[in-house]
Amino acid sequence: MSSKAEIAKELFLKGYNCSQAVFGAFCEDFGIKIETGLVLSSGFGGGMARRREVCGAVSGAVMVLSLVHGYSDTENAEAKKHLYEEVRKVLSSFENETGSIICRELLGLEEKMSAPTPEARTKEYYKKRPCAELVYLAAQCVENHIASLG
């Protein structure tokens, strides 16, 4: 059986963006059809529509954590606090390994925003981008967090 991190990396290598890859790896565990999860997370790729802000892998991880710890009662401040604490733990794990959660920093890009047109997924693309490993790491951080819950 593959780990969620391996599944996420595999999804990325099939052409899905970072957010789709991480969120998609966990969809079945929450009764979400993979197609629905891929659509729901699709706008977060490239640091949110290639704006190079928060890494898409991190956004996908936060979406999964929201399924685990999220709340719907606006009056429950404790539930909101708990979610934020748990998200921060996972983000810290990712950031401790990478130095950032910001897409452009992770990619070593100077420009703040890229054109909305995605790059072709060629051998050169995969050689210059650490995204497959970042997706793996983000999913692994979430997987470890969920396992620690018992």
**Given the structure, what is the number of helices?**
9
Question: What amount of the residues lies in strands?
Answer: under 5%
Shape: globular
Total E-strand runs: 0
What's the quaternary structure here? single chain
Summed over residues and divided by their number, the pLDDT gives a mean of: 95
Number of domains: 1
Major beta-sheet overview: none
List the topology elements.
Blueprint: H1 4-13, H2 18-26, H3 34-41, H4 45-48, H5 56-69, H6 77-98, H7 103-107, H8 123-128, H9 131-148
What does this structure look like?
There is one protein chain. This protein has nine helices and no strands. By secondary structure, the chain is mainly alpha-helical. The chain has one domain. Helix 1 packs across helix 2 and helix 6 (77-98) packs across helix 9. It is globular, with a radius of gyration of 15 Å. 35% of the residues are buried. The model has no long low-confidence stretch (mean pLDDT 95).
Short précis:
The protein is mainly alpha-helical. It has one domain (4-145). Helices cover 64% and strands 0% of the residues.
